[in-house]
Specification:
By secondary structure, the chain is α/β, with parallel strands linked by helices. The chain folds into 2 domains: about 10-20 and about 95-215, Rossmann fold (3-Layer(aba) Sandwich); about 20-90, Orthogonal Bundle (DNA polymerase, domain 1), CATH 1.10.150. Helices cover about 45% and strands about 10% of the residues. The chain has helices at about 20-35, 40-50, 55-60, 70-90, 100-110, 125-130, 150-160, 175-185, 195, 210-215, and strands at about 10, 115, 140, 170, 185-190, 205. Helix 6 (about 125-130) links the parallel strand 2 and strand 3 (about 140). About 40% of the residues are buried.
Length: about 220
């Protein structure tokens, strides 16, 4: 028999948390930078472009561009970046990162509501392709609400899960996503590279082997009134 659900809900970011798609985003930006003569580094991507809405990412990408791009040209660049991203996806395939399926299974056994909150505009398509769409109760992305670091995406997921923000735990790999969770008044777990993320109160290098009891017992965060 499944265990009774606690009051907590768990909200995952997608790129770099559930799926390896963050690497595909970097590769597609890298290809465009080489062709356009844009000075673009892995550090710029990791520190400033992870987890942000695509128009914001483009603005950062073009800061060192040799020329100016009007609105129409910017839209063309975004379309081209998206095309390259899906070409890489088609070539490399897509599957959940290590530890994801085991964690989702453990949460579902406890009847913990699970949501996904992402600044991507391809979230539902990618979750479906990776076989995760049917395993989560709510999905909100940049098609539905302002992108991170605005808290709106996470607040919308919490509402869909019928959980208060204070009862939600967010799992993130990007600074803007971590900030969005904090603005929403949610506990947040940072997952990924320690050197990139720096000091974070609740850090795990990977979701593989994560302690579910620890995850669900993280102190609640409440916004100051």
């Amino acid at each position: 028999m499944a265990e009774q659900s606690p009051e907590r809900g768990v909200i995952f970011d997608m790129d770099g948390v559930l799926l390896r798609t963050d690497e595909y985003h970097y590769q597609s930006w890298r290809e465009m930078a080489d062709e356009l003569g844009v000075s673009f580094s892995r550090q710029t991507f990791d520190q400033r472009m992870r987890g942000v809405e695509r128009s914001t990412a483009l603005a950062i990408f073009l800061e060192s561009a040799p020329g100016r791009f009007d609105d129409a040209q910017s839209r063309e660049l975004l379309d081209e970046k998206n095309r390259r991203f899906f070409a890489i996806l088609e070539r490399e395939g897509i599957r959940p990162l290590d530890g994801v399926m085991a964690l989702i299974d453990a949460l579902r056994r406890r009847r913990v509501p699970i949501g996904v909150g992402s600044s991507s505009r391809n979230t539902r398509r990618l979750l479906q392709a990776a076989g995760l769409a049917s395993l989560v109760e709510a999905v909100v992305d940049a098609n539905d609400a302002p992108g991170k670091p605005s808290p709106d995406i996470f607040l919308s997921v919490a509402k869909a899960l019928r959980r208060s923000p204070a009862d939600c735990v967010v799992i993130e790999d990007a600074f803007d996503g971590i900030e969005a969770a904090r603005r929403a008044g949610m506990a947040v777990v940072a997952v990924g590279d320690r050197e990139r993320l720096g000091e974070q109160p609740n850090f795990v290098p990977t979701l593989e082997g994560i302690d579910v009891d620890w995850l669900l017992s993280l102190p609640q965060r409440r916004l100051a009134t």
